[in-house]
Amino acid sequence: MLVDRFGRPLNNLRISVTGKCNYNCIFCHREGEENTPDELTADDIELVASAAYKHSIKSFKLTGGEPLIRRDIAEIVSRIKQLGKDVEVSMTTNGFYLSEYAGKLAEAGLDRINVSFHGVSVEKYRVITRVDGRDRVIDGLKALREHGVPVKLNFVLTALNANEVRDLLEFASRFEANVNIIELIPTGRGKEQFDKIYFPVEKILPLIESMTVKVERRELHNRPVYVLNNGVRVEILANFCNPFFCQKCTRIRLTHDAKLKPCLNRNDNTVNILPILRTPSLNGDEKINALMEAIKEVNSKREPYFRLVNGKVVTADGSSCQLRDI
């Protein structure tokens, strides 16, 4: 297993299979990626995943854009799952096409799925996503339940939907789903909207704590996990000005335009692997070996974006902010 110079192991690869999306969410961070054409084929994704697996990376998250736009998405899941019995493949989706794909994804071996659900009411959902898709997503959640795929609802907390947190937790309980409550980050459209709609997670923690029977701590990102009295598990993702979050980051990213990316918040330290993937003189094994070296290179570039230095939080670009410990 690779370890970066800050002692953080690398065990997770997040793969953006497309930059395209059928939604237009007001705060979308676009995985921190640039608006460029898609470059990854299913063969490319399998090669990179194979190289990652040889570095003992066994957890893969497929995302976008919207991954279900790709008609070969179930094939991609299946190819990664076939790397080994110890491989976990999950996905993040807006859920609009889930009714069509739930069975195919389950058959392909998808281990679990995160479904974006940023508004419980029809009105809030439409305002935030700019798509009238809430009821279609609910149909998709029902299909996932029928096929036995574990579900987690992703809820980006903002000033627009903070008053729906209680409704969200009740909704999750009815669908036997867990919840990620995710703070807005100043990246992509989130940067444009940050000052207008940022809502600190500390303001809704009393509500969650009032329903909590046990608190755990997940290794990835040092995330607190609240186990509620209705059985729902709520993870809190508070990246902004939280060095303890970055301290436990164990992932790299593969962008839709074929770059290895160490951090969501940066684009100045990526490793372009498209030349490896498109060199016809290299056979499959040679490409995997070259990709393994590229993964080593990107691991050497990994560093916490928010760091605690002499009691102050300092960012990778040299700015500072107030310390938070969530």
The tally of strands reads 15
Query: What does the average pLDDT come to?
Result: 96
User: First CA to last CA: what distance?
Assistant: 28 Å
Q: Which spans have pLDDT < 50 for at least 5 consecutive residues?
A: none
Instruction: Quote the beta fraction.
Output: 15-25%
Major sheet characteristics: 12 strands, mixed
Largest sheet: spatial strand order: 7-8-9-6-5-4-3-2-1-10-11-12
* SS-based class: alpha/beta
Estimate percent helicity. 25-40%
Question: Using only CA atoms, what is the Rg?
Answer: 19 Å
- Which of globular, elongated, flat, extended, rod-shaped describes the shape? globular
3D architecture notes:
The structure is a single chain. The protein has helices at 42-54, 73-81, 98-108, 122-129, 134-146, 165-174, 189-197, 205-210, 243-247, 274-277, 284-300, and strands at residues 12-16, 59-63, 88-93, 112-116, 151-157, 178-183, 212-217, 224-228, 233-237, 251-254, 259-261, 271-272, 306-309, 312-315, 320-321. With 326 residues, the protein is an alpha/beta fold. Strands 7-8-9-6-5-4-3-2-1-10-11-12 form a twelve-stranded mixed β-sheet. Strands 13-14-15 form a three-stranded antiparallel β-sheet. Helix 1 (42-54) runs parallel beside helix 2, helix 2 (73-81) packs parallel to helix 3 (98-108) and helix 3 runs parallel beside helix 5. The chain is globular, with a radius of gyration of 19 Å. The chain starts with 11 loop residues before the first strand and ends in a 5-residue tail after the last strand.
